[in-house]
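This protein record is not my work; I was only asked to verify it. Take the sequence as given and treat only the tokens as open to question. I have pasted the whole thing underneath without changing anything:
***
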Amino acid sequence: MSERMEGIAELERQVAALPGVHATTIEKGELVAHAAREGLVALMTTLRDDPRFLFAQAMDICGVDWPERSERFDVVYNLLSVALNQRLRVIITTDEVTPVPSMCGVWPSATWWEREAWDLFGIVFSGQPDLRRILTDYGFEGHPMRKDFPLTGHVEVRYDEERKSVVYEPVKLVQDFRNFDFISPWEGITTLPGDEKVHEGREEEGRGE
């Protein structure tokens, strides 16, 4: 086992023993910990301050939608320890209404990530003082990264020259949906453009025989 993998294995042993951690795995050379919502702030504070971990940076907080599950969302925290040159991914689950404790008191930058997760997935963060949309526009309906979100959205935004203001209107499709079969072009096309004469030549040879 390499020195790096030995370090990850030791980190896994230490993280697995922390309160609130359900399970740990090593995926593609990085440690992943599955944890509970309850006590999440205490867990993350330990991961930030404990000299064994020193995960001083939250590099990313994002959501994953699994609509077939009762707790359909994963909330994924990607942490970095510059001091110890280690990475850790912490994953918790929640549903559409159960709030997740905000990490803005642990890492102030979490506000940006939590706003994005709220905007795109509708994940609620308790204790977040600035939970508002960050990527979609004011008045946008729904959360576009949910897998059951309609592909066309609900409203469109445009500037109305007569009203001299921005207006919101229901989406109007100018053409029907097109279905794509995603067949490889090498399988779906029997004759490439420009090759028609090859087939004509073969037909003439066949008639000559």
